Amino acid sequence: MRAQRLYAIAVILALLVPAAWGAVPRRMPFTRYWPFIDYPMYSQSHFSGESAYAWQLRVAGCQPGGDPRIVSEAELHLPHRTMLKLLRQAANGPPHGKSRSLVTDMARQLPDPVCGIEIWAQRYVLGPGGIVDRNPPWQLHTGWALGQATAAR
Amino acid sequence: MTRWLERRAAAVERHWFAPASTRDLGIVRALVFACLLFSLLDVLPTGVALSHADQTLFKPLPALKVMLLPLGWGARPSSGLILAIGWTAAAAALLAALGWFSRITTVVATLGTITIIAHNYSYREVNHSLALLVLIAAAISAAPSGMAFSLDAVRRRRRGLPPAPAMSPEARWPIRIGQWLFVIAYLSAASSKLVHGGIAWLNGETLAYYFMQDGIRFHSTVGLALVGWPRLAQLLSIGALGFELTFMVAVLKPRITWLYLAIGVVMHTTIYVVQRAPFFQWLVLYVVFIEALRQFGPLAIATRPAAGVQPGRAGAVVPE
């Protein structure tokens, strides 16, 4: 009976103490993976005038005159959330950052050769009475070229 | 002072180890592992797709490294291995829900699910909706949850063995762990808002912004429509924060547990409709409050005799 009780206490502590430790908010959110992942999400405050973006990946083929085409997350075997996060990081990151390298590497896995990558965005602005423009235009946010030699497969 | 401490210690002892219904624990096991099964079947195709994603995306979480240690530290599983682990865990979850060799099947289902989820979160996008489910499954798999409401109990009966006791201390603590995990999860969400967002998190514009952001990302027309109602967003913000901060009342005061759970159902359903964040598992996991619901829920109150028998206490720390 005593052993059973000690076992139960050990299980209780093993499950609750790490959870409670993880629940203590820290100034550096989004970095802990267990036991509660990313709980600080949605915890920043926001104000009228701030923007949110929709993202789109487009790739240009190596034939002259062709228009860039939209690449879906399914083509890259990625969930919707992962794709959006990657595009946001690549769009806002440094030109030679890790996220852009990742997008470049993934674009190279597409069936057709890719010579250019573009990230397009729709910018929505929060106004005092709602969204300022419910249908903003898609605009080129950033883009970079791939060398012909590296693009060829 | 000593007597006060003794009384507190006795209350804590009752809270965690007062005999509870083994049938309640069986029902909790059945629903938690049924939920685990559906969640696994939901996330498994994503895991298989991710196993074909570009190698440069793979950044294994510590949990995945530990679970796949036999393959080497940080090894990336093939799609075949993901499928094998997923289907083994799914079969174990089904048997665990039915209560067949519960001590083994609950453990296999939990470990398999942890592996699949850790793999899915090893591609730069982590989430949290399944964490609570896995932790509660772990608590149940550590206890003798097949005493009642299980095929194990049927097998005992057929063999002519004496039935498991109707009440047992072993049926109390796993369910309590689940209840306190809910308290910690909600408290974590609330304290993060207060620390990172401050009191401005309640300004209405914050929630309107998140409605806009998720409306765009996940094509929620309801979310986009609500952006134009900042006062409503402010009321929802205050309500959500108040609910999260005070959820421990649902554990400590079983008479009003049902009220908190009703608010929780409305809150999570609204979050799904507006922001497409699926927390349906949490609504199923509310089953860990089964004892309080059975004794003090609206149905129990409606069917309770006018006078006479009073229901037993749900083992609260603070006496009512």
Task: Kindly name the structural category of chain B.
Answer: mainly alpha
Question: What is the terminal separation of chain A in angstroms?
Answer: 68 Å
Q: Which two protein chains have the largest interface (Cβ within 8 Å of the partner's Cβ), and how many residues from each?
A: A-B, 59 and 65 residues
Strand order of the largest sheet of chain B: 1-2
Q: How many H/I helices of chain B?
A: 16
**Rg of chain B, Å, rounded:** 22 Å
Order of helices and strands of chain A: HEEHHEEEH
Number of strands of chain A: 5
Strand residue content of chain A? 15-25%
User: How big a fraction of the residues of chain B is strand?
Assistant: under 5%
What is the quaternary state of this protein? heterodimer
Largest sheet of chain A: 5 strands, antiparallel
Compressed to H and E, one letter per element, the order of chain B equals HEHHHHHHEHHHHHHHHH
Q: Distance between the terminal alpha carbons of chain B, to the nearest Å?
A: 22 Å
Point out poorly predicted stretches of chain B: 308-320
- The overall pLDDT of chain B, averaged over residues, is 91
Instruction: Report the count of strand segments of chain B.
Output: 2
The number of helices of chain A is 4
Q: Classify the helix fraction of chain A into a percent range.
A: 25-40%
Overall geometric form of chain A: flat
What does this structure look like?
- The complex is a heterodimer of chains A (153) and B (320).
- Chain A has 153 residues and is an alpha+beta fold.
- Chain A contains 4 helices and 5 strands; from the N terminus they run αββααβββα.
- In chain A, strands 1, 2, 3, 4 and 5 form a 5-stranded antiparallel β-sheet that branches.
- In chain A, strand 3 (114-127) and strand 4 (130-131) form a beta hairpin.
- Residues 149-153 of chain A have low confidence and may be disordered.
- A two-stranded antiparallel ribbon of chain B has the order 1-2.
- Chain B starts with a helix and ends in a 17-residue tail after the last helix.
- Chain B is built from 16 helices and 2 strands.
- Chain B is globular and about 65 Å long.
- By secondary structure, chain B is mostly helical.
- Chain B has helices at residues 2-17, 22-50, 62-67, 79-98, 102-120, 131-141, 151-158, 173-197, 205-218, 221-226, 230-245, 248-252, 257-275, 280-285, 290-296, 298-303, and strands at residues 20-21, 167-168.
